[in-house]
Amino acid sequence: MDDYALVLNAGSSSLKFCVYRRPVAERWRLESRGQIEGIGTSPQLSAKDAQGEILAENRLEDWVSDGRAALDALASFLRSKYGGARVLGVGHRVVHGGARYAEPVVVTREVLEELYELVPLAPLHQPHNLAAIDAIFDRMPDVPQVACFDTSFHYCQLPVAKIIPLPSDIRKSGLQRYGFHGLSYEYIASVLPDVAPEIAKGRVIIAHLGSGASLCALKNAKSVDSTLGFTALDGLCMGTRPGALDPGVVLYLFQSLGLSAKEVETILYKKSGLLGISGISNDMRDLLTRSEPKARLAVDYFVYRAAKEIGAMAAVLGGIDGLVFTAGIGENSPDIRRRICQASSWLGVELDEVANTKKGPRISTLKSKVSTWVIPTNEELMIARHTGTMLGLL
Ligand code: AMP
Predict the structure, then answer these.
(1) How far is the CA of 275 from the centre of ligand 1 (A)?
(2) What pLDDT band is residue 386 in, cutting at 50, 70 and 90?
(3) What is the pTM of this model?
(4) CATH code, residues 197-379
(5) Alpha-carbon span 115 to 119, nearest angstrom
(6) Could you tell me which CATH number the domain at 3-149 has?
């Protein structure tokens, strides 16, 4: 019987998955990947095989109204495709590993409890990531599970990059910058030697621009700094999160507007950023088609903030050799890439307009001082690699 392994990335309204298969005496290969989107609103399942052929594209029934129900729907799809398969392990994306986890970990009930303590630091993602682990414990108690953290890649940053300059008795409870999107950055760093060898050991800024957005400053493939910090709220403007804020703004929300902690949390995680500025959408693709001044301002701010933070990361690195765009906006929007590159021309970024419209992968001219790239990220593959290593499956 062939062996199977599963990768899950459980979010608030989506459940992404990859199925890997190891035929007898062969190597692991991707069998299928897909997602359940619209959990709680209008759930839909889509899945493709490794060649991109559609395996499923259908509306799910309304009982798929939360993460557990989505896992049940996924399980019944997987049974219909791979009934009787032997599952050797499940790898999960977990956003926050706190101060403890510099590496992925095989999850026990004790580890899970510890990870639940980090929910306040990532309320948008962590509860959903952990609910998926919990559900698998219930349904497949003998299958080992591995948690792969978005924070681990940044563990090696120096204390000066991690410190939050508040009194030490407050910092004792784990108050420090952690950084996120680490699985994405780790994947990009792992492919740079093949895709862009001339910058693989150099000073590189990776711009992960999706619904969540951040920058990572890399030196010799190691994280030196990143724009996300203690929580996933800092740095760049995001779909529904504001990015860096004067902390006085938060005091104002409490003291002058009299908002509750829950209300402030909702504003910061779900109502700000592109959505907050435009009042129209959190989705960059939508905003780029709109002519309303507020939609334009949202896009302008997104670009402005990205360019500003690229300048800060370049200062941290003492100049840059490479710039890489990735994630939904970074991979798919030539317009946003052009605007960020133009705003970063003072650093020596010179865009090749034609290559940019074709998605590169190299999008800078040959004489550009900074070689600039579009590289699709693959967080699921990174999780699969870690899970394989941790469970001795490779
Ligand atoms: P992600 O979180 O990485 O899936 O990225 C989601 C973001 O990518 C959303 O804001 C989408 O609107 C944006 N996006 C996807 N495709 C495009 C595109 N062709 N042009 C502009 N933005 C895009």
Answers:
(1) 14
(2) very high
(3) 0.94
(4) 3.30.420.40
(5) 7
(6) 3.30.420.40
CA distance from start to end of the chain: 17
Band (179; pLDDT cuts 50, 70, 90): very high
310 lines ligand 1 (CB under 6 A): no
* Among 323, 327, 374, residue whose Cα is nearest residue 350: 323
Nearest to 32, CA basis, from 6, 58, 60, 13: 6
Residue 328 Cβ inside 6 Å of ligand 1? The answer reads: yes
Beta strands, E only, 183-254: 203-209, 213-219, 222-226
Report the Cα 59 to chain-centroid distance in Å: 26
Question: Ligand 1 atom closest to Cα of 287?
Answer: 12
Domain with CATH 3.30.420.40 in the chain: 3-149, 197-379
Query: Do the Cβ atoms of 204 and 318 come closer than 8 Å?
Result: no
Q: Which range has the worst mean pLDDT, 19-28, 49-58, 90-99, 168-177?
A: 19-28
User: Hey, what are 67's tokens?
Assistant: 């993460």
Q: Listing from the earlier edge strand, what are the strands of the sheet with 203-209?
A: 222-226, 213-219, 203-209, 322-326, 371-374
Question: In angstroms, rounded to a whole number, what is the distance separating the alpha carbons of residues 342 and 97?
Answer: 36
Distance from residue 377's CA to the centre of ligand 1 (Å): 13
Q: Which of the residues are catalytic?
A: 150
The preferred substitution site among 184, 277, 332, 337 for testing ligand 1, maximizing ligand atoms within 8 Å of CB, is 332
